Amino acid sequence: MKKRILVIPGDGIGPEVTKWGQKVLECIGEKFGHEFSFDYGIMGHIAIEKTGKPLPEETLEKAKNSDAILFGAIGHPKYDNDPTAKVRPEQGLLAIRKELGLFANIRPIKLFDELLNASPIKPEVLKGSDILFFRELTGGIYFGKPQERRDNGNTAVDTCIYTREEITRIAKLAFDFAMKRRKKLTLVDKANVLETSRLWREVVQEVAKSYPEVETSYMFVDAMSMALIRSPTKFDVILTENMFGDILTDEASQIAGSMGMLASASIGSKVGLYEPIHGSAPDIAGKGIANPIASVLSAALLLEIAFGMKKESESIVNAIDKTLKNGYRTIDISDINTDTSKILSTDEIGEKIIERI
Ligand code: IPM
Ligand code: MN
Asked: What per-residue confidence (pLDDT) applies to 13?
């Protein structure tokens, strides 16, 4: 197959880890006889520095004309403590999600057996965890208008808004995936307080009627934040709105041992965007110690979801599994039992994975 992939490395550790997502794609292309071509785009802080805009038109154009996008990370500490900044790196990511119509963000939380001890959660609680999050990505409080200051800056307004259509389309997608898994779906909301959540519940109850084989349950977000770490194996597909999904998936990363292990797929229209769930990690950027596995797993998701290349995707996951079984770790997934001579840099562990593909 011939495919065009746009690589957007972004900020912080983005370029260091995305390099390995791309190398793995190149390696798969050679091994399986696919022709992948790569183009590059800028977004985030780096794009603001160069063009004044977090998402330059050129990057968006390239994105629209590609078959899939591999993205790194976004953000710079310079903006985090400057609440008055008008232009922010994150606006680039939000804009590309919206412009491309990527309303569904899929975040698989899968624990590699080898990492049972890398998580702060007890191994017996964790063993067998395998959750698929569906986070709504282009609605809710992230995009609701108005978002503004009033009263000479002394009052701030964010708006949480959802339409029946926005909920229905992601709910159907989540149920379709549940049918291919363990046939369990949990909607997370705050329907005891929020009107938007009550609409979510109403719509999901309606959609559930078309999926009688799926065992559907409902949970408030506060209860879920506890249940996720208390009994993670209870859950299969978890469906939720934009901000709850953002928060819960960071929490859920601890089930997989580290944020450095989680990939995501943002889909919904022609071109999907594949990225680690982690941020730009400015504290470790440039040190060569970031874990590239989330980017490599994003590449695997890209192959599977965007190109339907299941075998290719599996060979990446198997290579990561072997690398971990051989004892190799980056610092974030090491524990007291790790042989320190096997704690590797970003590039070293990237090479080990490539060798094993
Ligand atoms: C994520 C990130 C983004 C989000 C930020 C960088 C805008 O945290 O992808 O989870 O909140 O969606
Ligand atoms: Mn997040």
From this structure: 98
Angle subtended by helix axes 293-301 and 310-325, to nearest 10: 160
Q: H helices within the chain, ranges in order?
A: 14-32, 45-51, 57-64, 77-80, 90-100, 123-126, 164-179, 195-208, 221-230, 242-252, 293-301, 307, 310-325, 346-356
Q: What is the strand order of the sheet 215-220 is part of?
A: 35-40, 2-10, 68-73, 272-276, 263-267, 104-110, 130-136, 237-240, 184-189, 215-220
Minimum CA distance residue for ligand 1 atom 4: 246
246 is catalytic: yes
Ligand nearest to the CA of 251: 2
Q: How far is the CA of 276 from the centre of ligand 2 (A)?
A: 10
Catalytic residue flag (residue 80)? no
Which residues have a Cβ under 8 Å from the Cβ of 152 and sit 6 or more positions away? none
pLDDT tens figures, 225-259? 999 999 999 999 999 999 999 999 999 999 999 99
Q: Is 250 exposed, middle or buried (0-12, 13-18, 19+ CB in 10 A)?
A: middle
Count of C-beta atoms within a 10 Å radius of residue 189: 23
Task: Give the rounded percent of residues in the chain with a pLDDT score beyond 70.
Answer: 100
The pLDDT, as a whole number, for residue 244 is: 98
Ligand 1 interacting residues, C-beta cut-off 6 A: 74-75, 90, 93-94, 246, 277
Say what percent of the chain tops pLDDT 90: 97
Task: Note the pTM of the prediction, 2 decimals.
Answer: 0.97
Tens-digit pLDDT profile for residues 295-316: 999 999 999 999 999 999 999 9
Residue 7: enclosing H or E segment and its boundaries? strand 2-10
Strands 68-73 and 2-10: parallel
C-alpha–C-alpha distance, residues 135 and 329, integer Å: 29
176 tagged catalytic: no
